[in-house]
Specification:
homodimer, 154 residues, mainly alpha, two-stranded antiparallel sheet, globular, DNA-binding
DNA sequence: GAGAATAGCTCACTGAGTGAGGTAAGTTGT
DNA sequence: ACAACTTACCTCACTCAGTGAGCTATTCTC
């Protein structure tokens, strides 16, 4: 985005620069997802779906097709297709939801977890390594900042 | 990703949590792009292309179709199609590259900048506001962290 | 229990992205 | 200075991911 006509303000300029840097990181993460997709023969959407399902599992949230559709910002039909593809590839299992007979419970298979770990493991380790370099205070600063940003993005 | 079998390590756990938070931010930024795309009748890829072109302009880099393809992680053919769509919508102009007769120079139109600003402006302002809350030292901590992460992602 | 709402699905279709292959401009070797 | 190679981008034909319309089954509301 062009900087507009605002008068020079070093505080603002520094903040803008930081936001751009954050976007840059987001972009590269997305590119890494695309690379993983190409490497495994999956589609970018499928990989995004898998990571969201794993996130749900980690957070203890029950992942349903509807929930997944919302997470991906896609229609329910497209999400149905994604689930079918992942199911056919053996990456996801559809279990019956015990709370709602209309809905399904999605569970990621061990093979998918292993696959993801093999590819993203090294990357993740590198990122963890970088993050561990921060002392506790700085880590808290970054963490709080990211949390606030995530909230601001709804 | 599941946490694996490593023994409990609070440092590592905190770092991992932070990395997940970073992914969360990246995801939501991507969703915002999708929302913008739907609102404007563009496609997510087209929006991503526009932002990259604006980034190039900001950085003073000459944006060519080939460069854009690389930035989007797509084939040159798909990028040709993106450029055609953006050109037809009046968002991008193809100018002749003066250094290389085979290549083209892509320039984003004022209307596209205005369009992006109208949608992303409020969001960007909110993020800048959040970032300005940090004092200079903390901003530097976050900025350095993000730079290191971006580099680690190639 | 009837009517409304919700979760997810199938079907038919559109069009974004790919692979194969072409053209034109630039680069290199002799 | 010309042929051979490389690079940058394009067109064409095709595939299949994602959408809109509309269906069924289950749950909620009164």
């Amino acid at each position: 985005m062009r900087e507009g006509v605002k008068p020079a303000d070093p505080e603002r300029a520094a903040a803008l620069e930081l936001v751009h840097r954050l976007r840059e990181v987001a972009l590269r993460l997305e590119l890494a997802v695309g690379e993983f997709a190409r490497a495994t023969g999956l589609h970018a959407t499928d990989v995004r779906a898998l990571t969201r399902l794993l996130d749900a599992e980690r957070a203890g949230v029950e992942a349903t097709p509807g929930w997944l559709a919302q997470q991906l910002g896609m229609t329910s039909q497209a999400t149905t297709a994604v689930i079918h593809r992942l199911e056919a590839a053996g990456h996801v299992e559809r279990l019956r939801s015990r709370s709602d007979g209309r809905s399904a419970r999605l569970q990621v298979s061990e093979t998918a977890v292993d696959l993801g770990w093999r590819f993203f493991g090294p990357l993740l380790e590198r990122l963890i390594g970088i993050t561990e370099q921060l002392d506790q205070r700085d880590r808290s600063v970054v963490s709080d900042y990211l949390t606030t940003v995530a909230d601001a993005l709804e």
